[in-house]
Write a structure and sequence with these properties.
The protein is an alpha+beta fold. The protein is built from 10 helices and 6 strands; from the N terminus they run H-E-H-E-E-E-H-E-E-H-H-H-H-H-H-H.
């Protein structure tokens, strides 16, 4: 038996302690920039800065026009993905162009493959829109090409505009993703799902204390359990018709088993382990145009390759197999109340 005192298979405890101290300190510094937290270690998402709207009211500098507006999106980002799904469901591909940005692994910013508006990076586009801007440069961005201005960079507001304000140019103008009949219920679901699920997965992954993580994880799965139970009788969150509440939930569910389950430590249960949530996810994925907005390779590359504090090695996993999204869902057999 080898003498443990002479073994060189492991570093000494002093090197381990030093390495742990250095890495923990660096991790805390990087996380403070990536994911600001409160004193208890809970992730606090900063507010979006540009909150204007498209409208025909007098004095609004951003009237609805085909070909005037562009969406800047990152394919890995769930918030930007919402706008792509809404654009596809409404049939606005010919009316609103898209430009795809990719994250820089070294600089921590979004960059253009080819210059747009004379800009090479998203921060440069923000600077063009508002000289001297020092805030976060995030996607999605709804851009007014005529005014050279950012109309809005808050996804929850952009999808409302895409649903309501471009019907004159939409291929599916009669599709109402926010019907007045269901607005109260849509708002109730959004108010529940955003903090616990949409942002909840980030509250798990970006938590900087055990207590913050445990709180977020418990809230996440309690809400997923509640949604699963509701979907036992309704095809969608608010009945038999898709609404913006479903769009907002979908982009998180699509990424859950691929990214959040492992990388963000949301590993109590996968979405495919839920009887109704899993079928509901397949149902949404198989709606016309939606699958084309889903880029699984970009999702894995953006999360595993660019969130250095969470995955320092940058190794991108080969799985999971998501071909189950194409399996029959049988959700059309449910008979919830119709809009």
């Amino acid at each position: 038996m080898a003498n443990p005192k002479k073994s060189k298979s492991l570093p000494s405890k002093y090197i381990v302690k030093l390495g742990k101290f250095v890495w923990t300190t660096m991790w805390q510094v990087m996380m403070s920039k990536l994911a600001p937290s409160n004193p208890t270690g809970e992730y606090i998402r900063p507010q979006s800065a540009f909150r204007n709207s498209i409208g025909e009211e007098e004095g609004n500098p951003h009237p609805p026009k085909a070909g005037r507006y562009r969406l800047y999106v990152g394919l890995g980002c769930p918030w930007a993905h919402r706008t792509l799904v809404t654009r596809a469901l409404k049939g606005l591909e010919d009316a609103i162009a898209i430009s795809i940005v990719s994250p820089s692994t070294d600089e921590g910013i979004w960059i253009f493959e080819h210059p747009e508006e004379g800009c090479h990076t998203l921060p440069e586009l923000y600077e063009l829109a508002q000289p001297g801007y020092t805030g976060r440069c995030t996607v999605p961005v709804l851009w007014d090409s005529k005014k050279k201005a950012i109309v809005n960079n808050e996804s929850s507001e952009i999808i409302v505009m895409l649903d309501a304000n471009f019907n004159a140019f939409a291929k599916h103008p009669t599709l109402d993703l926010s019907p007045p009949k269901w607005q109260t219920q849509i708002d109730r679901w959004n108010d529940k799902i955003y903090p616990a699920v949409n942002n909840g997965v980030y509250r798990c992954g970006f938590a900087q204390t055990q207590e913050a993580y445990t709180k977020a994880c418990n809230e996440l799965f309690a809400t997923l359990d509640e949604i699963d139970a509701a979907l036992a009788t309704n095809r969608y969150l608010c009945g038999d018709s898709v609404t913006l509440a479903d769009v907002r939930l979908f982009t998180t569910l699509f990424r859950f088993d691929v990214v959040y389950y492992g990388l963000f430590k949301c590993n109590r249960r996968r979405i495919r382990d839920y009887e109704y949530l899993s079928a509901y996810l397949r149902d949404l994925y198989q709606l016309p145009g939606v699958a084309e907005t889903c880029d699984l390779d970009s999702v894995k590359r953006d999360y595993y390759g660019n969130l250095f504090p969470l995955n320092p090695g940058g190794i991108i996993p080969l799985g999971p197999d998501m071909t189950n999204l194409l399996e029959p869902h049988h959700r059309e057999q449910l008979r919830g109340e119709k809009v």
